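Contributing new complexes? Match this layout with glutamic acid.
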Amino acid sequence: MNEESTERDRTGSEKDGGLFNAVCRQFDKAADLMDLDPDTRKILAATMNEVTIHFPVKMDDGRIEIFSGYRVQHNDVLGPFKGGLRYHPLVSPDEVRALAAWMTWKSAIVDIPFGGAKGGIQFDPNGYSASEIERITRRFTFALGNTIGPEYDIPAPDVNTNAQIMAWMMDTYLATVPAHQRSANVHVVTGKPVGSGGSLGRDKATGQGVVYMIEEWAKDNSFDLGRATFTLQGFGNVGSWAARLLKPFGSTMVAVEDVSGCIVNEDGIDPDELLEHVNTRGGVAGFPKARPADCDTFVCTPADIFIPAALESQITAETAPHMRVRLVAEGANGPTDPDGDAILRERGIDVIPDILCNAGGVIVSYFEWLQNKRSEFWDLEEIDEKLSRRMRDAYSRVCDTAKDCRTDWRTAAYIVALRRLARAYKDRGIFP
Ligand code: GLU
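Output block (do not edit by hand):
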């Protein structure tokens, strides 16, 4: 199962000067409100390193195809660069830049010693065989060379990438280091298969974190999750885990959208049955226990909670006015563009922002990285307990900051992150 699933084409922010521009707008709002030191502001408004690689790969039929891959390192003042690698036809330098910055804020909010990075290869893996995807992955990893490293920049799964792809990346990277140093370098990627140095609980981590955040919101609002309804966009790793983990609370999933189409059933769609269907059919379309619907119907479907768990810029000036929910719990990165965000705020719809809500993945990546470094293997109970504590603590910090600064949750989340980053720059100063 891939880390996240894909969704309909992005629109909103692209019209407004790109996704990184959207990040800058969110950042500026928080920086103004907290009066961020102007020098720190300049540093954080730019990425540190950007690598673009065009590389050839031999296809199964002997042809050569050229691929474009990117790795953007936004900031490493709090620790090594960290962030996923996605395979998608819409991957672009602008998108990867935005996603890298979000990783910096995310790690800072949940207080893990990582910076932010992101990477991607611009292609649709659905059109390629497993052995072609393996060669694409290995060739890109080789070309990245020392751009990645276990104490420098640590990739992980993201949209359309998974534990298998991480195993290929690790194996390729390790082939380039001296034999006696290999076992000391397996933490060069996280999200690996459990049998190859991966962590228990990494697979479900992002979805699990989303559910912890929804639980906290429900507590704050004296809301009974046992009678909650929710709609879900994306049924990849994040969405399918969030849906399955909400089931024991008694919450009812009433509509799901993915690249294959939309399905609706007010009486409930069972996430386990849907997963079986998606595993055989490749998408939610055609699920027999729900009726097909169009995208507009999906957006308008009333529910208590909407979980976007696909791509960026899905909640926009076009869709936000039609949404009939109380809470948006952002499982995806950047699902709400600045215009959509403003409309949600005006309409009184609560938002648990992406950089808090979906941080479970990178938190358990951190646990995997620590286990590898210490040659330890933690049990699932320990991982769940540690994940829960970190996410809930971060929730409280964001909640308190929103109250103290009288601002919305996204801005509050940025302020939590920026305070931590500003502190580090103040302590360290700038070389020379
Ligand atoms: N791709 C995930 C994210 O966007 C996980 C990143 C990681 O584990 O490094 O947060």
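Reviewers usually confirm one structural detail per submission. For this one: The first strand starts at residue 49 and ends at 58.
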